[in-house]
Amino acid sequence: MIDLPRSSFYYRATPRTTKLSDTELVTLIEDIQDELPCYGYRRVTHELCRRGHLVNHKRVARVMRAAGLGIKPRRRYARTTDSNHDSPIYPNLYRNLIPDRPDIVWVADFTYCLPSTIRRALSGWASRLSERGLPVRSSFPQTPQPR
Predict the structure, then answer these.
(1) Alpha-carbon gap, residue 56 to 48, rounded angstroms
(2) Are 118 and 110 within 8 A, CB to CB?
(3) For residue 28, what pLDDT is reported?
(4) Which intervals hold domain HTH-like (predicted)?
(5) What 8-state DSSP symbol labels residue 65?
(6) Closest C-alpha among 80, 79, 40 to residue 61
(7) Which DSSP string corresponds to 73-89?
(8) Segment of 9-18, 34-43, 125-134 carrying the highest mean pLDDT
(9) What is the pLDDT of residue 143?
(10) Measured distance CA(72)–CA(143) in Å, rounded
(11) How confident is the model at residue 19 (pLDDT cuts 50, 70, 90)?
């Protein structure tokens, strides 16, 4: 047997990387973000590692913050308003009105109500009025009752 420690037998030298200056690191990060624009500092650090540049993630974060290389945050909401339509746009009649007592201005938005929901609500309202003996004129067909 060879008188050699096991760790020395299995040791594999890794190639030493040259120390990168901050300006060189910024150019590398810019190249990565040109290819992959949604990458933040963690993914950029991993990509630098894949390309053979061992850089600490804290240094990458500091350099990206100093150079203004942050990612563009994704929108976390869905755009629901479609302003590009041919329908008339009605003016806001109460733009400059400041109510001085309650029950002056009432506002409702039926944008996302389903027609069946509205029909059920109106039929329930009409049935309550007719139970009280008030006249109700129905202009919509009755919805079938659930089984």
Answers:
(1) 10
(2) yes
(3) 95
(4) 23-77
(5) H
(6) 40
(7) PPP-S--------SS--
(8) 34-43
(9) 55
(10) 49
(11) confident
